[in-house]
Design goal:
Elements: H1 4-61, H2 68-84, H3 89-113, H4 116-121
Helix pairs in contact: 1-2
GO molecular function, one term: mechanosensitive monoatomic ion channel activity
Pfam families: Piezo_TM1-24 (PF24871)
GO cellular component, one term: membrane
């Protein structure tokens, strides 16, 4: 029926096929890992660029004393980026949190100004209400 030589040849072909399959899976895993790392880096960098752009846009759109912190944060981040090539994560987080708190205080101020008590205290025609 089958002699030992034909069985060993079939075994060698199976081992070769399994080795090729394992090598393909390892290379696929390496490719997926590198792609995931690259996308993570691009997302992080894209978020930083978007936040910096929005800070600058917010500071420029309606020039006023209340938009000055946005403009200063934008100029600080851009200057730091230009000098050193990257912004330290701690500095970027601090700027992000400070601008978040400042923006939240603006939203709350506008929301609370809708209350009748505050509208009586600061009538809309006064300069300080703007």
């Amino acid at each position: 029926m089958f002699d030992e030589d034909s069985v060993s040849v079939l075994g060698d072909e199976e081992e070769l096929e399994e080795g090729t399959r394992n090598r393909f899976l390892v290379e696929l895993e390496i490719l997926v890992t590198k792609t995931r790392q690259m996308l993570g880096t691009m997302t992080t960098t894209g978020a930083k660029v978007l936040l910096t752009f929005l800070l600058g846009l917010t500071g420029i759109m309606f020039p006023s004393l209340s938009s000055l912190p946005y403009l200063l944060c934008f100029q600080l981040l851009c200057t730091w980026w230009a000098w050193s090539g990257q912004v330290p994560p701690l500095l970027f987080r601090c700027v992000s949190v400070m601008s978040l708190v400042y923006s939240a205080s603006h939203f709350l101020l506008v929301y609370f100004y809708q209350l009748p008590l505050l509208q009586e205290a600061w009538p809309p025609n006064r300069t300080s209400a703007r």
